[in-house]
Amino acid sequence: MLKSTPQELNIERWFSDDEPTWIVGKRRKPPQTAAEAMAQSKRLCKTLHRLSTEAGIGLAAKLAGCAPENRCQSGACPVCIRAAQRWFVASAAPVLAEVSKTSGICCVSIIPANFDDDGKPQIIGSVRAAIRQILTVFRQAGIRFHLGGLDISYNEVEGDKNDRKYKRCVHIWGFLRADELRATESFLRRAFYRTEMARRTFMSKAFDGNPAGIAYVLKNAFVRRMRLSPDENRSGRFNTRDKGLLASQKAILALRLDKIGLSVRLLSIGVEIELFRTLKLKPDASCRNG
Predict the structure, then answer these.
(1) What's the whole-number mean pLDDT along residues 10-39?
(2) How many helices (H) and strands (E) does the chain have?
């Protein structure tokens, strides 16, 4: 449990509906409210109870006990994820602004992969394995600044419309210095090779300063990605469509997220992070790599 004291920062402000705020998606909706996060938590508790397992019932009790001044800080708690997201938006914005004084900022989306027993590249479902690979590649590339987080989806691997099968996929959404990205992009694209299930494993674009892009680092809505065959897709190519997770996937993912913890979802280089308390540049992280 995360308990606040008079000597510590008042973390309860992040559980409210005050600033920061931002616009979400093409429909330009506001971000999730505290009441909506609580309702989501109650639905998840019901799903976990239906597992009828000791772990599921235990996690449901943990989430139900999350309350002011006694926050569970579980990686599965919709209420705590929302609060951490709001804290991250407010704390990361000035750090990104500081870095942008000497270089532009780019958003990057990365799907790491490893090789199976037959030597074929495959997506990574393990959070810790994904983190190890990302950090290894970034170190090899000489990246000195990265600020981002982990997203998890369930990607369809095989089956027809009536018998779809899915595999968990970890991917990274974060921010790099524009000058470091220009110097290392070709290396990064080779390092994060394509797989049969994920063709666009490395994508980048200039960051426009929209706080919604920062909020996406700690998103609270996970999806399953269904593959569309060419005859289902107007482009004539294989593509994907996002759908909500199945109940069983929600429960299994919640247990996994609770095990790894909320702070593990944040992945940084050159930034000191202590969830709900500190997010600041380390010395020289904002300087040009060289």
Answers:
(1) 92
(2) 7, 11
